[in-house]
Specification:
2 copies of one chain form a homodimer.
Chain A: H1 11-32, E1 35-39, E2 44-46, E3 54-60, E4 63-68, E5 74-80, E6 85-86, E7 98-102, E8 106-112, H2 113-122, H3 124-150, H4 153-170, E9 177-179, H5 184-191, H6 195-207, E10 212-213, E11 220-222, H7 226-235
Antiparallel strand pairs in A: 1-8, 2-7, 3-6, 3-8, 4-5, 4-7, 9-11, 10-11
Helix pairs in contact in A: 2-3, 4-6, 4-7, 5-6
The structure holds a DNA duplex.
Chain lengths: 245, 245
DNA sequence: CGTTCGATTGAGGAAGATCAATTAATGTGG
DNA sequence: CCACATTAATTGATCTTCCTCAATCGAACG
């Protein structure tokens, strides 16, 4: 009885999701033949205010999406992985409303918005793909808002790690040991807390053996068991913490 | 010289936006002839888990969108006004992921998802309409997340009122005096704070003359000047409050 | 006119921000 | 390769904001 195998214990349930991203990428590749662009950590692919010429799909790597307000506030509002789209928020206004910046080496595919629109008119499966990507993003943003509003700081950090590990797992990538490509300050900015609070939360998670730090630096995190992270979140809810009705 | 007319002092700038919603509604009405449904405060139009048969567009009234998690947390994650769409988050999974509940009398138009998809394939302007609605929702959700993360409680309440008044103004509705159709508890739940904090924030806003309560109850709020609300938000940022870098 | 529900206001406490000091990585020029 | 400079992370000590608990008040309703 193997117990250390959380992935694909139920192949029938895992299979469709596991196939979804490669299938989507193949469809896009074949029907639109997108221009490919290699990026390294720190490279922006667009900036808030840029005219929306293209939408982007990640073939590999990790991106952060940074929102900025007129009054100078700046915040990481999303993380993007393989198969995710970038730039969807700019469709309404014809201009990008955020910065998109690579935080790891990777490859993005550029889809001319006009060409995509044309193709979507002719090919139902392409339209579906786009609508589903947008829908997924809306649903995810709401979950994120909800975590922000209802979870205490420690749980938010745990949830952040769980989400990251989960995203990698769904894409068939190594999840046992993940490299956070963000500083504590960036993580805190994303989660709405200070870098000190992030650091303390991580220390506590490590002390509780929910995560472990690896030899090389504290930027690499070992997650022996994703379910344990979820358990940690749940525990911070149950013990007398109805937190906002 | 009439001075109490904040709208359309610059007709060229205001006109396109002001026309956008009626134009969109007319297009939908003519091309899809949607079934219309009257609702009253408290009526749900769908529940999380329901199969996605329709998308909905508000012709009038106000809706709240409520998200619930497996562990029982429940939160208002969005407010919807005339011209807004409901149910977009359910496209990806084929099921609604939230409850949508009327908080005022109004009328929603039901669009069979399949029919909408067909029509969008044939009519570019309809496809654009749908994509723009989804894009706008993504952009707005990010702004909301950002407010949550970067603004202190008082400013979040001010921003909430500003957004509500702004939404009404954009739709050509009375904005001088608005009726909040949510309890303090609901507002607090939406903004990630307790009802007491909402109450205190409102009292402070009234004391600073940024808002005023009307004779009948404290559920009606008079907003003499929307810009003053924005000013209040800004002030809570500048005086030694970098708040998260 | 009492009952109920929502709103307000105050007092005390806890989570998390801020300030500050230390330690660990990373990078740079010699 | 090492000394040094720089940046990131950790940890502790306060202080602030906001939550919790509780009492009071007002409005709506039967």
């Amino acid at each position: 009885m193997t117990h250390a195998e959380p992935i694909a214990t139920n192949p029938r349930a895992a299979a469709p999701a596991a196939r979804a991203i490669p299938d989507a990428l193949r469809l896009l590749s074949e029907t639109l033949e997108p221009e490919r662009r290699l990026v390294r950590a720190g490279d922006p692919i667009y900036r808030a205010g840029d005219r929306l010429g293209c939408l982007y799909v990640l073939n590999s790597g990790v991106f952060k999406v940074v929102n900025l307000t007129a009054d100078g506030r700046e915040q990481v509002v999303a993380l993007k992985f393989k198969g995710d789209w970038l730039g969807l928020d700019g469709i309404a206004g014809g201009r990008h409303t955020c910065d998109a910046v690579a935080i790891d080496t990777g490859e993005v595919w550029m889809l001319r918005y006009g060409a995509l629109l044309d193709a979507a008119q002719r090919r139902p499966e392409l339209l579906q793909l786009l609508l589903q990507a947008m829908s997924r993003e809306i649903a995810h943003d709401r979950d994120a808002l909800m975590s922000m509003c209802t979870l205490p700081a420690d749980a938010r950090v745990a949830e952040f790690l769980r989400y990251w590990a989960d995203a990698l797992e769904q894409r068939g990538l190594r999840t046992e040991q993940i490299t956070l490509r963000m500083t504590r300050a960036e993580i805190g900015n994303y989660l709405g807390m200070t870098l000190e609070t992030v650091s303390r939360a991580l220390s506590r998670l490590a002390r509780d053996n929910v995560i472990a730090f690896c030899e090389r630096g504290r930027r690499e995190v070992r997650i022996p068991n994703i379910a344990a992270l979820h358990g940690f979140v749940q525990r911070s809810l149950t013990p007398a913490s109805p937190m906002l009705q």
